[in-house]
Write a structure and sequence with these properties.
- It is built from 29 helices and 27 strands.
- With about 850 residues, it is of the alpha/beta class.
- Among the domains are: about 100 residues, DNA repair protein MutS, domain I (MutS, DNA mismatch repair protein, domain I, 3-Layer(aba) Sandwich), CATH 3.40.1170.10; about 140 residues, Nucleotidyltransferase, domain 5 (2-Layer Sandwich), CATH 3.30.420; about 90 residues, MutS, DNA mismatch repair protein, Chain A, domain 3 (Orthogonal Bundle); about 200 residues, P-loop containing nucleotide triphosphate hydrolases (Rossmann fold); about 35 residues, no CATH class.
- α5 links the parallel β10 and β11.
- α12 packs across α21 and α26 packs antiparallel against α27.
- The protein is elongated, with a radius of gyration of 36 Å.
């Protein structure tokens, strides 16, 4: 037996899109068949049924309502599926199979549905090209038309590629075949789920094909205008990405009308681990926004501004003049309350023009979208007026680049009714007066309906049937309805149309004639209205580039207003930006997020890091005292300054910093076969490989994942390497009090501690950073605060007292001190240790050799 014609067509579609789930449109449902149905019934929790398909057995089938498709698309994409939407292209007719074809393929990086997207976050798709001794990465958001590319040449580390992909945070990644090897390396390095690399045709990555694709997309003869002429790797990555988008979306993407070459030397580098530790855009608890730096800074009024502010946080600036330009814009808005609030009030009325422009080009524009564009553009003249009197260069540039778009506003306001519908299916969205022909057709339809009312009244009088009424439905058209109780009054000229339980429905020749006129004019009016909307969209296409440009500057203004609003609300200060060789000086610095969330206030602290005498701070003190918070505070203040924000401090001088590294906290990464200690050492290795004299390094409790001697030795060696080779500004917290001996031994190392007050056998955390090292860890006191049973605390104190008496806990001072006296005579091992100590010239060995010797002696004593 053969498949039925429809199922044969489905099979042919499935053969073309084997890697996709086919959503096959049947009336008001999207259906899935065979293996797709079985798989989706489980993945989307759908009821699995069957359908006759021409074979002996019914085809497995499941379906979803057309109106609820976005919900199921989101679920399927989240589970890693690609979806091919196979739509009906013709109206159903008796005896003729409906034409259907795939109109688009939806992947995680090509979502256009606003109900699925996060309006405050870009949805990027990336393309990775691995060439000879070079990598290029291109990325695009098809909802906004943003398109970027960057290139890495020469000595390329996986760390660097990882940093860029992390910064982009793409929803989907395509690549050439050679780049697939990179995925495995990144997975070993990463501690989050990267999108799976999908190999795309190498022919599309070929430079000649890619260049042709880009020239066609941008309608240009040379790529010189986009600084791509001598960048073959960039051309390969970006050209292949455009090919992929055109293949999957099957339509023009004219809003992608340019590309920007990005140089990451212009931005501060922050790797994935540091982003996670500092909680820049996702918190450590559940990955949400609450409690992050972005949450703290985001007081934007528009979706466009929110996305740009996220980009500010993801890409801190490196050039002093660019930072100061942004700072000065924030400062002017900070100082002018009336202007700032007036601008905010207008910004709140502006819709997402960037994504609305995307819908114009994508041919998914609705009449309601036209209302949104028109209403938003109508606000721009008011914003321009508010920006007229300004001293800031950046705000002057914003005012100059925002166009009033009076032509577009006039066009849309004259064409589309207010409160327009969300689709064009039923008409009623073109405003009266826009088209004389449409007005005539609508008038004919209205007159026809008036004829119907008059006919109803006339029939009631002629027949004497008082409750006679004329109705309409889409199946039977217009009809005269008479209750069964009055059927005997029906005249012979009535023709029975339909019998119901309590009434009969009839038609007359006059009613049929009027119906033809009404329905004919309504059908013509609907087709004309839909055609007028297509023409209107074509007109809008010519304005998309200008509207996008204005939208970009509106977003920038919104981000600046947000930073100014946060500065006022939280008593922030404009930092002084200085060159990289200058001191980092923070007076009364505060951790912005902890301060915002805490109900108990926040104790401010000072920080001084220079290139000479105070380059490295070794910070000691008990757990819970605030060491990690203080370290993060310094990093976040530094980062905030680099995005042009004011900072939480009484005053601050921040030097240009090329990278921020953090190694704070660690957990097992069992999915990749890494223990806690291995994770820690991998992160430290990354820092030591990539830090420079202009970097800021935060190291918290290095070496705690292994034995005491191993850990102390590693921490000591790491400190020496940073001090002698990297000479980076460093904050180094530790429980190894022995490391405090490095002050005076290593240049630029200074000891600091978190001040603690002992009172009646307990401790009070003063949260203040002071000079000098801590001489006690207060571990048992912290355990008591944590709620350990009193018996455990008492026993711990007893054990600690015994250990201290035996000098077991005094690892670094055991050689320098006279030693603990015991009543027993030394045994053989002890005598051997004594002889070694007598022969050792302490002044001639390094601290590291002393630690190694001490470890050997300890092993001898333990037998």
């Amino acid at each position: 037996m053969a498949l039925s014609p429809m199922m044969q067509h489905y099979y042919e579609i499935k053969e073309k899109y084997k890697d996709c789930i086919i959503f096959y449109r049947l009336g008001d449902f999207y259906e899935m068949f065979f293996d797709d149905a079985i798989e989706m019934s489980k993945a989307l929790d759908l009821t699995l049924t069957g359908r006759d398909c021409g074979l002996n057995e019914r085809a497995p089938m499941c379906g979803i309502p057309f109106k609820a498709v976005d919900i199921y698309i989101a679920k399927a994409l989240e589970k890693g599926y690609k979806i091919a939407i196979c739509e009906q292209l013709t109206e159903p007719k008796a005896g003729v199979m409906v034409e259907r074809d795939v109109i688009r393929v939806i992947t995680p990086g090509t979502i256009m549905e606003s109900s699925i997207l996060d309006e405050h976050k870009n949805n990027f798709i990336a393309s990775v090209f691995a060439g000879k001794n070079a990598f290029a990465i291109s990325w695009c958001d098809i909802t906004t038309g943003e398109f970027y590319v960057t290139e890495l040449e020469g000595e390329i580390s996986v760390d660097k590629i990882n940093d860029i992909i992390t910064m982009i945070s793409p929803a989907e990644i395509i690549c050439n075949k050679d780049a697939l090897l990179l995925e495995k390396q990144l997975l070993l390095l990463e501690h989050k789920s990267l999108p799976k690399f999908t190999a795309y045709y190498d022919t599309c990555f070929a430079v000649s094909k890619a260049e042709e694709t880009l020239r066609n997309q941008f309608s240009i003869v040379s790529l010189k205008a986009f600084d791509l002429e001598n960048r073959p790797n960039c051309i390969c990555a970006s050209g292949a990405l455009v090919s992929y988008l055109l293949e999957t979306q099957k339509r023009s993407l004219s809003h992608i009308n340019g590309i920007k070459v990005v140089s990451y030397s212009n931005y501060m580098h922050i790797d994935y681990v540091s982003r996670k530790n500092l909680e820049l855009t996702a918190n450590a608890r559940d990955g949400g926004k609450y409690g992050t730096l972005l949450w703290y800074l985001d007081r934007t009024s528009t979706s466009m501004g929110a996305r740009l502010l996220r980009k500010f946080v993801d890409e801190p600036l490196q050039k002093q003049e660019e930072i100061e330009l942004r700072q000065n814009g924030v400062e002017e808005l900070y100082k002018n309350l009336i202007k700032r609030e007036a601008i905010r009030e207008q910004l709140e009325k502006i819709n997402d023009l960037e994504r609305l422009c995307g819908r114009v080009s994508y041919n998914s524009l609705t009449p309601k979208d036209c209302n949104a564009i028109c209403d938003s553009l109508a606000i721009l003249p008011k914003i321009k007026e508010l920006l007229q009197t300004t001293n800031s260069k950046v705000i002057k540039a914003i005012e100059k680049n925002i166009d009033e778009h009076s032509e577009v506003t006039k066009l849309l306001s004259s064409a589309i009714v207010e409160n327009a519908p969300t689709n064009t299916k039923d008409g009623g969205f073109i405003k009266a007066g826009y088209s004389a022909e449409l007005d005539e057709l609508k008038s004919a339809s209205t007159e026809g309906k008036n004829w119907i009312l008059n006919l109803q009244k006339q029939e009631q009088e002629e027949t004497g049937i008082k409750n006679l009424k004329i109705g309409y439905n889409r199946i039977f058209g217009y009809y005269i309805e008479v209750l069964n109780s009055q059927r005997e009054l029906v005249p012979f000229r009535y023709q029975r149309k339909q019998t119901l339980a309590n009434c009969e429905r009839y038609v007359t020749s006059e009613l049929v004639e009027i119906e033809q006129k009404i329905l004919g004019s309504e059908e013509k009016a609907l087709k004309l209205e839909q055609q007028l909307f297509v023409e209107l969209r074509e007109k809008l296409l010519g304005y998309v580039a200008q509207i996008k440009n204005s939208a970009n500057y509106v977003a920038y203004l919104d981000a600046l207003v947000s930073l100014a609003t946060v500065a006022v609300k939280n008593n922030l200060t404009k930092p002084k930006i200085v060159s990289s060789d200058q001191e980092l000086v923070i007076t009364d610095g505060r951790h912005p997020i902890v301060e915002a969330i805490s109900k108990d206030g926040f104790v401010p602290n000072d920080t001084l890091l220079d290139k000479k005498d105070n380059r490295t701070m070794i910070i000691t003190g008990p757990n819970m005292a605030g060491k990690s918070t203080y370290m993060r505070q310094v990093a976040i203040i530094t980062l905030m300054a680099h995005i042009g924000s004011f900072v939480p401090a009484k005053s601050a001088q921040i030097p240009i910093t090329d990278r921020i590294f953090t190694r704070i906290g660690a957990t097992d990464d069992l999915a990749y076969g890494q223990s806690t200690f291995m994770v820690e050492m991998t992160e430290v290795a990354n820092i030591l490989r990539n830090a420079t004299p202009n970097s800021l390094i935060l190291l918290d409790e290095i070496g705690r994942g292994t034995s005491t001697f191993d850990g102390l030795s590693i921490a000591w060696a790491v400190m020496e390497y940073i001090s002698q080779h990297l000479v980076s500004k460093t904050l180094f917290s530790t429980h190894y009090h022995e490391l405090t001996e490095l002050e005076g031994v290593l240049k630029g190392v200074k000891n600091y501690r978190i001040n603690v007050k002992e009172f009646n056998g307990s401790i009070i955390f003063l949260r203040k950073i002071v000079r000098g090292g801590a001489n006690k860890s207060f571990g048992i006191e912290v355990a008591s605060l944590a709620g350990l049973p009193k018996d455990v605390i008492s026993r711990a104190k007893e054990i600690l007292n015994n250990l201290e008496k035996a000098d077991v806990n005094k690892q670094s001072n055991i050689i320098a001190e006279e030693g603990a006296q015991t009543n027993a005579l030394p045994n053989k091992n002890e005598r051997e240790v004594i002889n070694i100590l007598n022969e050792t010239k302490i002044e001639q060995i390094t601290p590291f050799e002393a630690m190694s010797l001490l470890n050997d002696l300890k092993q001898k004593l333990n037998g």
